[in-house]
Design goal:
Blueprint lengths: L8 E10 L2 E11 L4 E5 L6 H8 L7 E6 L2 E2 L5 H6 L2 E3 L12 H11 L8 H12 L14 H12 L6 E5 L7 H18 L2 E5 L3 H7 L2 E6 L2 E6 L1 H5 L2 H6 L7
Parallel strand pairs: 3-8, 3-9, 6-7, 7-8
Antiparallel strand pairs: 1-2, 1-4, 4-5, 9-10
Helix pairs in contact: 3-4, 3-5, 5-6
The chain binds adenosine-5'-triphosphate (ATP).
InterPro entries: AAA+_ATPase, ABC_AA/LPS_Transport, ABC_transporter-like_ATP-bd, ABC_transporter-like_CS, P-loop_NTPase
Pfam families: ABC_tran
GO molecular function: ATP binding; ATP hydrolysis activity
């Protein structure tokens, strides 16, 4: 990469202390535009803290976050989201009495001021991507848990994000829905050039989705490379207590 590279997402020396514990300790990483980056590491490594710092849930004690070259210093969660950094969709609320289609359209309309696009067309394309076509006019409360998770994620993609940060998007989700979520991420990445930072413990999915992963351990970036490269590093193996990254 040339030195003039503008990263989709960049953290510089991010530090966050909780009492005596440095949850993130000088974390610097760069994610290129259109990349799908994995963020892995053992329990307690600081991954969620990093996500919270990047998305403005926590203010860092030191360091900075840049989105497309612009510092996010001092900005709150909502301001950051408005700039196009969109967080995991586990928190997106669905309206149980509304249909799948209405939920998607509502997500679009709630952020209408941010769009230049056509809400109906985007809704149709999300219904196609999620393969929820048969259920498009079904109320959200009648969906299975997995289908609801899929719809929540699709609602998140109705936000015009340039960079999506997904924290454990596959946890507790059945394999069929997992595949649909993976397809949706790949499609949003290819079609809209969106950038992703994905925290996951599911190595087979990380291997499929993420050409490069960043490994965090004890609050620091311990390694970066392809999953197979980093899985061979002694310090990574030791950090996972000798368990293979499978
Ligand atoms: N709000 C908080 N107050 C105090 N300690 C916290 C807080 N949030 C996180 N921590 C601590 O910071 C460390 C890093 O936690 P974090 O949740 O970021 O790790 P993680 O890599 O996401 O772990 P996991 O994979 O288990 O979710 C842990 O020791 C955790 O207990």
């Amino acid at each position: 990469m040339s030195s003039g590279q503008v990263w989709a997402l960049e953290t510089q020396g991010l530090r966050k202390r909780f009492g005596g514990l440095l949850a993130t300790n000088d974390v610097s990483l760069t994610v290129a535009p259109g990349e799908i980056r994995g963020l892995i590491g053992p329990n307690g490594a600081g991954k969620t803290t990093l996500v919270n710092l990047v998305t403005g849930v926590h203010a860092p004690d030191a360091g900075d976050v840049r989105l497309a070259g612009k510092s996010l210093q001092g900005l709150g969660m909502h301001q950051i989201a408005r700039l196009g950094l969109v967080r995991s969709f586990q928190v997106t609320r669905l309206f149980g009495n509304m249909t799948v289609r209405e939920n998607l359209l509502t997500s679009f309309l709630a952020r209408r001021s941010l769009h230049s696009g056509d809400g109906l067309a985007l809704t149709d394309s999300m219904i196609e991507l999620t393969k929820l076509g048969r259920l498009a006019d079904t109320q959200a409360k009648k969906l299975s848990g997995g289908q609801r998770a899929l719809l929540q994620m699709a609602c998140g993609f109705m936000v015009p994000g340039t960079c999506y940060v997904l924290d454990e998007p596959f946890s507790g989700i059945n394999p069929v829905i997992k595949d649909s979520i993976i397809d949706m991420i790949v499609d949003v990445n290819r079609r809209h050039g969106a950038t992703f930072l994905i925290v996951s413990h599911e190595m087979s999915i990380v291997r499929r989705l993420c050409p490069q992963v960043t490994v965090m351990m004890e609050g620091r970036v311990a390694a970066q490379g392809s999953l197979d490269e980093v899985a061979r590093l002694p310090e990574v193996i030791a950090g996972y207590l000798g368990k293979a990254l499978e």
